[in-house]
Design a protein that fits this description.
The chain has 2 domains: 4-101, Nucleotidyltransferase, domain 5; 114-291, ATPase, nucleotide binding domain (Nucleotidyltransferase, domain 5, 2-Layer Sandwich), CATH 3.30.420.40. Helix content is 48%, strand content 21%. It is an alpha/beta fold and 307 residues long. The strands form 2 sheets. The protein has a 5-stranded mixed sheet, sandwiched between helices. The N and C termini lie close together (12 Å).
Length: 307
């Protein structure tokens, strides 16, 4: 039997894979494109997963082989039919023992000491997922950019574009978001935003690249940008609180694991989020920043591989 395991973080922007031993120690890591099946279909997502795994083997200088177990955390694979399809495929191509979980589950496994509590992801999209000590799970968000993703990088960027265009019209408050966005995209006039947004085929991940700019403008004191940050933090707090209700039980404190590019990079947003949670929902502790959710996938793969 192989003494290797694979952990995969299939996010909306990129896929990261880690090849590890049975102690959970990383031997090699690899990256590829997005593995969200809702965005590009199963086949494209599976190709990116295999590419990331191959690069992890290459980095470890180990010939690719079947491993003892694999855990794949895939955004967009929450439904039972999607999990079944991916599990059948992964059992044929990756490992005989496979767990297909959502991306919140691997964030929680990476950031919670005992693998219970709440995971909050805010990157291109947003999701809250939690598990109680007794194994009861709950989720909020994760509906995608057309129906949800409140508090995400994409939603923050879209709100900033709306505020900027309303300022250009004179319908909204003046804001430094307008010149900042024009400078970022190297545009001369507000009307140039129309072809930049509608003709360039911007994916949600491309749009979300404006989110750090919104954070910077807010930190410089712009009233409108600050309001957008406040709205994003409130939306994320709403998701955490919705998940906390069924997860809390008798617990006085709930572990909270935070991940996703927006949450990890924007300290001001995190600070406001945690303050809002304290005022509305009690204590969340410990709070962990999860930079590598694939480590959580490795942890789950090791547990799966053990007899």
């Amino acid at each position: 039997m192989s003494d290797l395991v694979i952990g995969v973080d299939g996010g909306g922007t990129r896929t990261r894979a880690r090849l590890a031993n049975m102690c959970g120690e990383t031997l090699g890591a690899g990256e590829a494109g997005t593995a969200n099946p809702n965005a590009h279909g199963d086949s494209a997502a599976q190709n990116e997963i295999l590419a990331a795994i191959q690069r992890a083997f290459d980095a470890a200088r180990i010939e690719k082989q079947s491993v003892a177990a694999a855990c794949l955390g895939i955004g967009g694979a929450d439904r039972a039919d999607a999990r079944a399809r991916f599990k059948t495929w992964a059992a044929q191509h990756i490992a005989p023992r496979v767990a297909i979980v959502n991306d919140g589950e691997i964030v929680l496994a990476a950031g919670s000491p005992d693998n219970w509590g709440i995971a909050l992801i805010a990157g291109t999209g947003s999701l809250a997922w939690g598990r109680s000590r007794g194994g009861k799970s709950a989720r909020a968000g994760g509906w995608g950019y057309l129906m949800g993703d409140e508090g995400s990088g994409f939603e923050l960027a879209r709100a900033a574009l709306r505020a900027a265009t309303q300022a250009a019209d004179g319908r909204g408050e003046p804001t430094q978001l307008l010149p900042a966005i024009l400078e970022y995209w190297r545009l001369d006039d507000a009307l140039d935003l129309i072809p930049r947004v509608y003709r360039a085929g911007l994916a949600p991940a491309d749009m979300a690249q404006l989110a750090p700019l919104v954070v910077r403008v807010a930190q410089d004191g712009d009233h409108v940008a600050r309001g957008l940050i406040e709205g994003a933090s409130a939306a994320l707090a709403d998701m955490v609180i919705a998940v906390a209700r069924p997860v809390r039980s008798e617990e006085k404190e709930i572990p909270l694991a935070l991940s996703g590019g927006l949450l990890l990079q924007a300290e001001s947003l995190r600070t406001r989020l945690l303050a809002e949670l304290r005022s509305r929902a009690g204590n969340f502790s410990p709070v962990a920043l999860v930079h590598e959710p694939a480590i959580g996938a490795v942890r789950l793969a090791v547990e799966l591989a053990r007899p």
